[in-house]
Amino acid sequence: MLYSLVKPILFSLDPELAHDISLGMLQQFHRVLPGRRVDKPTRVMGLDFPNPVGLAAGLDKNGEYLDGLGKLGFGFIEIGSVTPLAQPGNPQPRIFRLSRQQSLINRMGFNNNGVDFLLDQVGDKARNFILGINIGKNLSTPVDQALSDYCLGYEKVYASADYITINISSPNTPGLRELQNEEALETLLSGISELRARLEDRLQLYRPLAIKLSPDLEQQAIPVIAELLRKYSVDGLIATNTTVTRDGVQGHRQADESGGLSGAALRDKSRQLLIDFHRELGEDIPIISVGGIDSTEEAKLRFELGAKLIQLYTGLIYRGPGLIRQIAQSL
Q1: Taking the mean position of all CA atoms in its chain, how far away is CA 231?
Q2: In whole angstroms, what is the distance from residue 204 CA to residue 227 CA?
Q3: Which residues contact 15 (CB under 8 A, 6 or more apart)?
Q4: Which phi and psi (to 5°) does residue 81 adopt?
């Protein structure tokens, strides 16, 4: 109800400004907000999730708003993408609303304050949700040296995260999606796997590893990637990131803006990748479905298609935080 009143005001502002204002207000007043979580416990990746509805990475890149976001009812929250060093991202404007299509285009470019800043925000505070940390590489790091950035970020966040996501699918860092190619992905997963074994032994902690993939993968790449995920004992697959295609938004005055398209226009591609990977992986590796989920009906469909968890982002912006509770109650 409240969101329906403030949404016209927020949508009259620049999207990035509206994002900062709404999250800032949420964080400032989190102490007076009632907890709204619906408990529907589920065990995935060896973790006990209070409910299977999560927040996708990208909304809280630096972990600055966890107190406020934690009051909205999510079973899990994924922060980031975070890079080893702070970087400003792409020039503004870099978020565009396609309201008629209930979609967004963004070309943020991994803007964040760096992994050390994020860890300061996370601290060692108790929390009542599962925390995922999504890591990426710095723009200045060549793609053929990406493993060093991922290993640095992975090691730094290992003890603070409940699970860690490797983002190799953002369209807004040049060359990043090349890491989804067979040889590059094997190199990356092999290096992370070796580091994970050392950290697990040294810290006596196990942190599940997830990989976030693009909806724009070629069909022939899917079984190859699925086999590599099995080979290196990846714990979860997040499907999907944003798309560089413009299906469903053709003719919109902002459709030609560069960046990744999310929201309702991504729905079909996100569903299809879920279907394709579930066919390959079966129950071996759980899939977290994200992209175009903006209703209880769509959420239920994703679970029917094989998802074990779901994440919200653009649907949350258009429908408001009440969507979280609606979906959780409906499951």
Answers
A1: 23
A2: 28
A3: 93, 95, 96, 97, 104
A4: -75, 140
Q: Where are the domains of the chain?
A: 2-330
Measure the CA angle with vertex 75, ends 293 and 156; round to 5°: 105
**Tens-digit pLDDT profile for residues 272-284:** 999 999 999 999 9
Angstrom CA distances, 127 to 26, 71, 122, 259, 308, stand at 17, 10, 10, 34, 22
Nearest-angstrom CA–CA distance, 318 and 263:
9
- E strand or H helix at 311: strand 309-312
Catalytic-residue membership of 270 = no
Listed in sequence order, the residues at least 6 apart from 247 whose beta carbon sits closer than 8 Å to its beta carbon are 265, 268, 269
> How confident is the model over 162-208, as pLDDT tens digits?
999 999 999 999 999 999 999 999 999 999 999 999 999 999 999 99
φ, ψ of residue 50 to 5 degrees: the values are -60, -35
CB 319 within 8 A of CB 288: no
The active-site residue, picked from 81, 169, 170, 214, is 170
CATH label, 2-330, candidates 3.20.20.70, 1.10.3720.10, 3.30.1490.20, 3.90.1070.10:
3.20.20.70
8 A C-beta contact, residue 228 and residue 284: no
Calpha distance 248→137 (Å, rounded): 31
Which residue do the tokens 């050392």 mark? 198
